[in-house]
Amino acid sequence: MAAVIASVARELAVEVEVRDVDADPDLQARYTDEVPVLLVEGRKAFKYRVTASDLRRRLRAESRRATLRRWRERLGGRST
């Protein structure tokens, strides 16, 4: 999983933060049975394994959602 994440992160120029679930009591309580787990923008996106194509798809979708949120905020609408 780590190799796929590193490769896609380089390809799409996204920042990755690696956290040790066992070192953080809150994360351990939430994800101890799901390691490795990948969160995207704070939400669980994948656990155990991920393919490069699935990760690319998820990151691009998240980017589109973020763009829509910014436009809604600029236009005075509510963000979702």
Proportion of β residues?
5-15%
In total, the number of strands is 2
Mean residue pLDDT: 91
Give the number of helices: 3
Distance between the termini: 30 Å
Silhouette: globular
Q: What does the main sheet amount to?
A: 2 strands, antiparallel
Spatial order of strands in the largest sheet = 1-2
Order of helices and strands: HHEEH
Low-confidence stretches: none
Computed structural class: mainly alpha
User: How many domains comprise the coordinates?
Assistant: 1
* Radius of gyration computed on alpha carbons: 15 Å
Helicity range: 40-55%
Short description:
The protein is mostly helical and 80 residues long. It has one domain.
Outline the structure in words.
Helix content is 51%, strand content 11%. It starts with a helix and ends in a 6-residue tail after the last helix. The chain has 80 residues and is mainly alpha-helical. The protein has 3 helices and 2 strands, in the order ααββα. The chain has a two-stranded antiparallel ribbon. β1 and β2 form a beta hairpin. It has one domain.
